[in-house]
UniProtKB/TrEMBL annotation:
Residues 172-452 form the SAM-dependent MTase RsmB/NOP-type domain. It comes from Gordonia mangrovi. The active site is at C392. This is rRNA small subunit methyltransferase B. One of its GO terms (molecular function) is RNA methyltransferase activity.
């Protein structure tokens, strides 16, 4: 076959979309879960092709560190000496070889086609040689060869095996009290594709009704939750019509906790201090509507404030675009939700590439901001009022550390046992609640409740 004809050989749309998304993630720090669905829609890639593109893109993005170690060993050079476009295709090919049931021949030949159509025969030969070498062993054999030994470095071994940066595995290990079994289960759960959870909007549809119309199953803990077995939630009428949304069950439990905590003589002044994009605000506001309360929702980003406005239409909410540390609100709130900006280490499974982008250096700035926000929340509470502080992170600095620091500065504030606010099992010793994917099937949400 002539070179031109080889270049013209069509490549399959699923792998092409996966490659282009990985490229956007690498070149412009894009988010795979925003780029891919849009690309699939624009290119009219649907059904099985869309499912394959999703599996390959998110899988390869999530496993990047593990894949790169294998590619580097097979190519006999560090990955940063490999051209970026070639590396994207090698990651896709290696992911297929190690972590899917796609046959080796198909995984290698489709990768070679992808690179040949764009870059020609030379790079295609390199991809072919590297992937053939990768295909000579399965994932376990590569891990045995490349991971630190279990005996010398258990955390390092588990981090490598379940494709997490080592520092994140260390954070999980600390938060889980050093138990190796728990750490292994947590990393394994975090390495899986997360289930889709729907929230039934209170007052509009019940979880039972939503389960019926969506073909899903009522959730274990949140009375508003439905587990969706598969398919695109955006195609459900209940979502399109605003009766339901997509929201992790852990986040639902946090929003609900704010509404069920005992507050004597509640005057109906409720506040969500960091509300964008509005997932928890929508749930809290729907309950506020039923209870005759009102929600002020503060968000510093104009774009995210717009997203809140879309989800709280027709609900008793005022959206304020402001820095919540100095938003000029009149104190005296009965209930305040502070769902603080955080490292997001508890929802890594929902943002495939995030674990490879974050670094421990992000933490100190976030912790300072969290303490300032929680201090302001305390100031805005009326005596007897409650703030629910939450993060989608199990990092002790962002969770128990922030709460302890603010309690130490504010003798007028007491911590309530948040376990009584969360209808779930395995909630530990309290008084805070830490949820986990491997225990509760939710994101690793943290919440603490403080009464002034
Ligand atoms: C964890 S997210 C909140 C998620 C939201 N509660 C939900 O359930 O959809 C934190 C939000 O706080 C916002 N934020 C960050 N710093 C802020 C500040 N100083 N004041 C107000 N909002 C802030 C971020 O833009 C982000 O939208």
């Amino acid at each position: 076959m002539k070179k031109a004809a080889l270049r013209d050989k069509p490549v399959d749309p699923a792998r092409e979309a996966a490659r282009d998304t990985l490229r956007a993630v690498r070149e412009r720090d894009a988010y795979a879960n925003l780029v891919l669905p849009k690309m699939l829609r624009e290119r009219r890639v649907t059904g099985r092709d869309a499912a394959l593109a999703t599996e390959l893109t998110y899988g390869a993005a999530r496993a990047q560190g593990l894949l790169d170690a294998v590619i580097s060993a097979a190519a006999n050079r560090p990955v940063d000496e490999i051209d970026g476009a070639v590396l994207d295709v090698l990651r896709l090919g290696t992911y297929q070889l190690l972590r899917t049931r796609i046959g080796s021949h198909a995984a290698v030949s489709t990768s070679v086609d992808l690179i040949r159509s764009e870059m020609g025969m030379g790079p295609a030969g390199f991809v072919n040689a590297v992937l053939r070498k990768v295909s000579q062993r399965d994932e376990d054999l590569w891990i045995d060869d490349l991971a630190p030994s279990m005996a010398d470095d258990l955390v390092g071994n588990l981090a490598f095996r379940y494709a997490h940066p080592r520092w994140i595995a260390e954070v999980f290990s600390d938060a889980l009290g050093g138990s190796a079994g728990q750490l292994q289960a947590a990393l394994a759960a975090d390495d899986e594709r997360p289930p889709v959870h729907l929230v039934a909007r209170p007052g509009l549809i019940t979880a039972e009704e939503l389960a019926l119309v969506s073909g899903g199953e009522v959730g274990r803990y949140s009375p508003y939750c439905v587990y969706l077995p598969g398919g695109d939630p955006g195609e459900l009428d209940a979502i399109r019509d605003g009766y339901a949304g997509v929201q992790d069950e852990g986040s639902q439990l946090v929003g609900r906790a704010l509404t069920v905590v005992e507050v004597a003589d509640d005057t109906g002044r409720w506040l969500d201090m960091c509300a964008g994009p509005g997932g928890k605000a929508a749930l809290v506001a729907a309950i506020a509507d039923i209870d005759g309360a009102h929600l002020d929702a503060v968000e510093v980003s104009e774009h995210r404030a717009d997203l809140i406005r879309k989800v709280v239409r027709d609900l008793p909410v005022d959206v304020h675009v402001a820095d919540a540390r100095s938003a000029g609100l009149t104190p005296g709130f009965d209930r305040i939700l502070l769902d603080a900006p955080c490292s997001g280490l508890g929802s890594l499974r929902r943002r495939p590439e995030a674990r490879w982008r974050r670094g421990p250096d992000d933490l100190p700035g976030l912790v300072t901001l969290q303490r300032q926000l929680l201090t302001e929340a305390v100031r805005l509470l009326r005596p007897g009022g409650v703030v629910v502080y939450s993060t989608c992170s199990p990092h002790p600095d962002e969770t128990v550390g922030v709460v302890a620091a603010v309690l130490a500065d504010h003798p007028e504030v007491e911590q309530i046992d948040a376990r009584s606010l969360v209808p779930a099992d395995h909630l530990g010793d309290g008084p805070h609640v830490q949820l986990w994917p491997h225990i509760h099937g939710t994101d690793a949400m943290f919440l603490a409740a403080l009464r002034r």
